[in-house]
Amino acid sequence: MPATLFHRFVLIIGFLSLFHAAYSAAQHRSFLRINEQTFTHLPLDIIFQSVGSLFAVMYGVMHIAGDFKEIKASADLENKTWETYRNVPSFYTFNHRGRTFSPFYIHSQHSDESE
């Protein structure tokens, strides 16, 4: 399912609401300090806003992120043969000193330019 404008809107609203809940919690703590009261718990409206915002952010991220892959490492490797495991282009070596040790090596002008 592609990310639509709705999913992005839900994500943005969720983040804004989550930041507002964090700001409200900080304001509540400073209010308690000013009035010299002890902190026991946050008000229920801040807790509900935080949990609802968290679920909205999770919903938006899951739809924007795209398709998830399996956690199993072997899931991507099940359809590959043994030859494809050994075929790693980063290990290819074309200019190496083994050609100078070969009795059949013919030194040509073209091979010196590639070094």
Descriptive notes:
The structure is a single chain. Helix 1 (5-34) packs antiparallel against helix 2 (44-65). This protein has a domain at 5-65. The model has no long low-confidence stretch (mean pLDDT 81). It is built from four helices and no strands. It is an all-alpha fold and 115 residues long. The protein has helices at 5-34, 44-65, 82-86, 109-113.
As a percent range, the share of strand residues is under 5%
| Largest sheet entry | none
Radius of gyration: 31 Å
By DSSP (H or I, 4+ residues per run), the number of helices equals 4
Pfam family, one: MMgT
Protein name: Membrane magnesium transporter
Subunit structure: Component of the ER membrane protein complex (EMC).
Transmembrane segments: 40-62
What distinguishing features does this structure have?
115 residues, mainly alpha, membrane, signal, transport, transmembrane
SSE diagram, text form:
Layout: H1 5-34, H2 44-65, H3 82-86, H4 109-113
Give a quick precis of the structure.
With 115 residues, this protein is mostly helical.
